[in-house]
Amino acid sequence: MEKLHISCDGGDYDILIAPEHPEEALALPGGKLLVCDSNVAKLHRAWAEKLTAPADTFVFPAGEKAKNADTLLAICRRAAQLKLDRGATFVALGGGVTGDLTGFAAAIYLRGVEVMQIPTTLLAMVDSSVGGKTAIDIPEGKNLVGAFHQPCRVVIEPRLLATLPKRELGNGLAEVVKTAVLGDAQLFELLESNARRLFDAPLPEDLYAEIILRCCRVKSAVVAADAHEHGCRAFLNYGHTFGHALELLSGFRLAHGEGVAIGMVLAAKLAVRLGVCEAELAARQLELLRALGLPTLVPAGIDPRACLDAMRGDKKARNGRVVLILPEAIGKVRAVGDVPPEIIADFLREVFA
Amino acid sequence: MEKLHISCDGGDYDILIAPEHPEEALALPGGKLLVCDSNVAKLHRAWAEKLTAPADTFVFPAGEKAKNADTLLAICRRAAQLKLDRGATFVALGGGVTGDLTGFAAAIYLRGVEVMQIPTTLLAMVDSSVGGKTAIDIPEGKNLVGAFHQPCRVVIEPRLLATLPKRELGNGLAEVVKTAVLGDAQLFELLESNARRLFDAPLPEDLYAEIILRCCRVKSAVVAADAHEHGCRAFLNYGHTFGHALELLSGFRLAHGEGVAIGMVLAAKLAVRLGVCEAELAARQLELLRALGLPTLVPAGIDPRACLDAMRGDKKARNGRVVLILPEAIGKVRAVGDVPPEIIADFLREVFA
Fold first, then answer.
1. Closest-CA distance of chain A to residue B334, Å
2. Domain range annotation of chain B
3. Is B334 a residue of the active site?
4. What fold, for A2-163?
5. Can you tell me the ipTM of this complex?
6. Are B10 and B227 in contact (CB under 8 A)?
7. What pTM did the predictor assign?
């Protein structure tokens, strides 16, 4: 078992990776509400309920569509019906949607109760379960409404990945590559040497535990330095400014990790163009993403002008100015806020052709 | 003009009472969204829009009913449609409902933007605009979902009280009496000497400015010491544990201040019974509340058992244990968490008869 202690503005907590005694990790004081979607309920509900017992469980329909105000309110109402008080803990068992919804509900129920995260997807294990960002989607855009709310604990069981569809695993690996490029060159090499094994059955659990630990370390270091996203936390958005726009414009046919994979390819290309990094970096990254079976080309039919508009509508943009996170070397990125929109527009027209 | 600087966990800000140049106070950088209800829109929208210009205005139907998730979401969606970014400020122009809704929307839109409060009711001027508590009602209860979100500034214009219905003014005065009992004996005496003048037309604006300043001082001192309600902030709930329960059980025919007025009468009576204060305190408080035209008797038809249940369901209760705020002297209260439920039940049966 690995244990990572996180200390940041908004809370101190532990991330437990492959705990030997999960039942102890999950023994919580106060009332509990376990939240999961209909898919996870089938796979892991019994396991989780045994660990969190006694707890009531709130199940919602699987899918990003459920990440809305209705589900959020329904979780809070269930908690109120159960008369859970401020000593209660919500337990999020699932992927990013579940973690975001449950974390946000915990942030606002009675103006804040605890939330424990038990991520079941690789994406959630390496990314969304750590850092305290929570949100819902509104018709105007994804994650436009939310809160910063740190978990009281994160329990990660790499074993749970065994039931994850391959596309979901790939999604998570895109986020792992992102983390490697922005802050861990050794992790990048580990991925290069093991790309072929990562989809093997049975899954190499120890390798995943190592990958997850490294990702959580990088992410938590960044978050600890900047919990409220005033500075270096923006580094975590490497590949995301392009990626979010592509996800949106594909009508979400591109999954999050797929958008990020293509977004990283674009960011690295632009970085080479602007002289921020060597061409070799872009090539190595491209090869790794391909080896992991991730898409690297912008899907046909997406308009470069619409892409730029979507990027400028991103909530990290200020006064319509896009902040780009560009790689300098494997393990190091830089925020660049002064690329003229015309340069980005020209670049997009070219790569989208 | 009076200026009060507030420094607390979650933000530093100024409360400006009767500012000479409100247009300067309201000159804000970034995008703005002015939020008010349909009543306030008729009375003060033009004035406020001139001060905050350029700003878009979101108007919702007046009444506590609008303090729900739908209105909250509608505010956030409007902001998103206007493409307001993280540098934006929401301006709450109105009473407690508007302040709570707008403050909560500001807390969660893009995970947090600024909110400025311009209270138009006495209740909001002395209470809800200060302290950063925001919330909405859900079918299971009032204020069960919300956030702590400090305003970036509070601008108080006692002149705006001139358009306030008498019952609303009384509601605010109940909260003023509460503040006096919990922390300002001189304010209590000021009210005793001026009770008759407080409803005169034209309203004594200077007297109100003095009252509001004293209330904000007491409240902000308490909030500064305990922004997240772990300790002495509970003092602000004097009269509210009984009061909220009575509001609820009256089907909200009792207004908030009216519930609090009766709640203070009950709290003082119980305090005398338990030997926490002298009978004279209860008598003085009763006389002042009557002089202010506030109700002091539990309305007929409310069941004492239901009242106790409602009190135990209050979000300040822990494990069903009710924390009561009881007066020791004019200007001093105490939190008492160990009154056995049977004692409270007996007391309620008696006073409700």
1. 21
2. 2-163, 166-351
3. no
4. Rossmann fold (3.40.50)
5. 0.85
6. yes
7. 0.87
